[in-house]
Amino acid sequence: MNDRDQRRYDALKRGRIFGTEQSGDFAAGSAATTRVANIEAVLARIDKNKAAQAAGSGNASKVTLIDALRIDCRNIRRTAAALDEDEPGFADDFPAAEHNEASVLTTADAYLAKLELEPGADGPGKEANAALVARFVAHELPADFVQDLRADREAIDAADQHQEGKRQGSVGDTTAIGVELTEGYKELRYLNAIMHNKYSRSPEKLRA
């Protein structure tokens, strides 16, 4: 909730507290007790939406996945740079990623384009790919390092979809909170009129 909504929420809570404290002055089922109960219900719904909004705000998982992909790229780049010592130009196909997220993703995609076997490839193409991958494996990268790179890259796409779903949920929660606050303020205006009428000759309670 923004500051304005928080102030409205706090006002509803104060109205509920005051109305509850004066409940002994009103008959059961009266307009006053009904309005207080309505405000109570509104606050409960707002609290539920606030909890859902908070639950959808985290993004640590995405950061962790980017870090894992960055390490994949760094290991491949380091190995390519070593191979470049005896084969100048080899590392040109495996440029280093910059620190930002977009560069890590682009770099991973470029590495996969070089290292993954194209669907349906056979004969010389398949043999050339196997030979390229083998050069990295010979320098102690895992035998399935290309598959690991692909899995880490796809995990980020999945995380993006999940985060978007949570963002949309958060937008929905924010909208719902606004609707409830509007409804709550209607109830509070009724309660305010009732209390002024009830306590017109009780200055201390009117000030409260």
Write the layout of secondary structure elements.
Blueprint: H1 3-21, H2 31-55, H3 60-83, H4 101-115, H5 124-137, H6 145-198, H7 203-207
Helix pairs in contact: 1-2, 1-6, 2-6, 3-4, 3-6, 4-6
Provide structural commentary:
This protein has 208 residues and is mostly helical. The chain has two domains: 98 residues, no CATH class; 104 residues, no CATH class. Helix content is 75%, strand content 0%. Helix 3 runs antiparallel to helix 6 and helix 4 runs antiparallel to helix 6.
Highlighted features:
mainly alpha
Average pLDDT, rounded to a whole number, is 85
The major beta sheet can be summarized as:
none
**Beta content:** under 5%
Radius of gyration of CA atoms, rounded to a whole number: 31 Å
Helical content stands at: over 70%
Flag low-confidence runs.
none
Q: Count structural domains.
A: 2
Q: Gap between N and C termini, in Å?
A: 26 Å
Summing up helix and strand content along with how strands pair, one would put the structural category as: mainly alpha
Shape: rod-shaped
Q: Quick one: how many beta strands?
A: 0
The H-and-E topology, N to C, reads as: HHHHHHH
- Number of DSSP helical runs: 7
In short:
By secondary structure, the protein is mainly α. It is built from seven helices and no strands.
